[in-house]
Amino acid sequence: MTRSVGLLLFASLIAAGSLGFFVSSYHLFQLTQFLVYAIALLGLNLLTGYSGQISLGHGAFYGLGAYATAIFLARGWLPYWAAVPSAGVVCLVVGFAFGLPALRLEGPYLALATFALAIATPQILKHDRLESWTGGVQGLYLEKPSPPHLLGEWLTADRWLYWLCLASVLAFYIVGLNLVRGRTGRALVALRDHPIAAAAMGIDVARYRSSAFAVSALFTGVAGALGALLTGFISPDSFTVFTSIDFLVGIVVGGIASVFGNFVGAAFIVLAPNLLGEISDAAPSAAYGLVLILFMILFPSGIAGAWRALAAGRPPKSTRSKAMTRRTTLMSTLIVLASGCQKTASHDAPGITATEIRVGQTMPYSGPASAYGAIGKASAAYFRMINDQGGVGGRKINLISLDDGYSPPKTVEQIRRLVEKDEVAFIFNVVGTAPNSAIQKYLNEKGIPQLFVATGADKWSDYKNFRWTMSWQPSYRVEARVYGKYINENKPDAHICVLYQNDDFGKDYLLGLQDALGPSYAEKVRKTASYETTDPSVDSQVVDLKASGCDTLVTAATPKFAAQAIRKVHDIGWTPLHFMTNVSISIGAVMQPAGPEKGVGIVSGAYLKDPGDPAFQNDPAVVQWHGFMQKYLPSADAADGNYVYGYAVSETLVQVLTQCGSDLSRENILRQATSLRGFKPSLALPGLELNTSPTDYRPFSQMQLARFNGRNFERFGPVINGE
After folding, report:
1. Could you tell me the residue ranges of all domains in the chain?
2. Reduced to 3 states, what is the DSSP secondary structure of residue 718?
3. Contact 577, 602 (CB under 8 A)
4. Which CATH number fits domain 356-473+645-677: 1.10.10.10, 3.40.50.2300, 1.20.1050.10, 3.20.20.210?
């Protein structure tokens, strides 16, 4: 290292360390996330770029490092400064153990083996026998490390974590440079490019390749540990196969076998989804994919490779050039990170001005639960209608709705952006149990209302521990009790099977059935089968359930898997009394894709009107809803029940804001949300009303059963109380 390069590196480190004092909290979060990903990408690049072993499973090591740290801290075994490196050691051991049998695999076979690891890890973390350690589907919370006492007065926990990550990056990149530029690096490259010749020269193939796997896992595990401290919450759904794919995208974009190209790759996977989401709200994933395709065409050797080629006077396709200087890489990275980092002004009432109410929301506009994106579109359209009518108290509602892909880590990032950069007044109707769990503690610690979460998990009524979080729809447990009560009264000898999603959403249905069936639960429920959101289908689970001899089926699945279950049940000639979760009975999103004729007879609990029901053809509220759809969402599928849900929950929020009057402080917004008395959303079923109090965070607790006739759901029987 020359003296000038050393001085530049030292100056850059000082600048990077100081940057934490001049950016907003949200941008500090992004900077820290960038550093975490830079470590993870370096680990993967050591394995894939330098030793030639393709891995699609490094998200598993990232998750293992996160969980190891969480367990060390939760059990009180280690302080944070020892838990993080210890998590890396755990991953090193596991990586070495996995690397040994993987020595027999190369190319696509190794990639498939690691891909299987990425698929299996979330399911292992959810296993009942490990739940006492991992928290199961509910995940684990972590406290951010506090700065040393002497620095505590002027250094926040966020800045201290940023400094820890910056120091970790420096240490790991020094180690990484020494590895790739020394004997080890030359041996790995020789094994990658000329394995037979390398073995003939006496290079120990098994030792070097297994060691590369172990060291790579160590780097990624430490990154996962730091990432867990950053987000403050981990769950199995935080570490899906898409995490591994993001890492692979990062090293490809930055440059394979480029140490400093990992900085570019980390900046890409942190910044690109947000920037592309702003450009294309309708299809952020499509825009992301298009950019990746352009990258592969224009820069086949990554940004670092293209820069090396241009510096040598060759087209970007060439990868044989002088290494790009560290000076240019480090400076360009700092420029990318520093762009847009500005302090935002604070206000006494964040998100409230004389003319505007800023509301934050994340939605799965992409990913496995993208069908629920219709809820966000309906809310945005409803607020446009309210604004056209003059707003609430003369203020327009500005809904800032961002895509989180149904991924908890992405939800955390987007929510921090909404709170710390966009300064919204509160968070409204975020979809999903895991995404809401990931942000619940953060929002409650800051005293920011997390209103009307779009999930029916029973835990959202915990007003004692999470005062700022409340639900809206009937809880899944309440809904399951309604089904259980109906079975007890109308089919007491039923043999029940349950198909459920392996998370809080699905397991609440099991708990609700236990509540309703009581001691007879073990006798009546013959078999249960779960699925993961990453599974391609639930066909095999349906076949297994039929084989158990059940005559009643309860399905707790999201729309994609609900449609698959309906279709498979019909195709194999199974005719059980089929109860379907209320969140997956949309005509447009579920029944039509499954085939309406295949869903005839399905029963579900209802609390909102079905605009397709002839009984409501002349209902004033339904007529008004159709007019709303024609004017504000003319291209939307009016048969999709998610638009009804979005309309009704948005109507409830407007009622809360109206009750606030001129006092739109966060405290009063929560006070009014917990003071709804006899409010009847226009699309609620007759006889149902919404009530809340400071000790009752379950607005709806009653449902009426409805049966699908091939066109719409027909209500039958009395209103059933699920309490």
Report:
1. 3-338, 356-473+645-677, 476-606+704-721
2. strand
3. no
4. 3.40.50.2300
Helix/strand/coil for 41: helix
Amino acid, single-letter form, for residue 470: M
Spatial neighbors of 470 by CB under 8 A, at least 6 apart, are: 450, 451, 452, 453, 460, 461, 463, 673, 674, 692, 697, 699
Over residues 422-433, the pLDDT tens digits come to 999 999 999 998
Tokens of 92: 């090193």
How many Å apart are CA 476 and CA 541, to the nearest integer?
21
3-338 and 356-473+645-677: identical CATH topology: no
Asked if pLDDT for residue 209 goes beyond 90, the answer is no
Task: Please give the structure tokens belonging to residue 578.
Answer: 């089929």
Let me know: does 222 contact 265? Beta carbons within 8 Å.
Answer: no
Name the fold adopted by 3-338: ABC transporter involved in vitamin B12 uptake, BtuC (1.10.3470)
Cα distance between residue 473 and residue 455, in whole Å: 7
Tell me the pLDDT band of 404, cut-offs 50, 70 and 90: very high
Could you report the per-residue pLDDT of 320-368, keeping only the tens digit for each? 333 333 333 333 333 333 333 333 333 447 899 989 999 999 999 988 8
For 476-606+704-721, the fitting CATH number among 3.40.50.2300, 1.10.20.140, 3.40.50.880, 3.40.140.10 is 3.40.50.2300
The model's pLDDT over 365-395, given as tens digits with 9 standing for 90+, comes to 988 888 899 999 999 999 999 999 999 988 9
The answer to whether residues 500 and 507 touch, using CB atoms and an 8 Å cutoff, is: yes
- Residue 311 confidence class, pLDDT cut points 50, 70, 90: low
Count of positions (residues) in the chain: 723
The β-bridge partners of 501 are 531
pLDDT at residue 284, as a whole number: 56
CA distance 633 to 669: 29
pLDDT attached to residue 162: 92
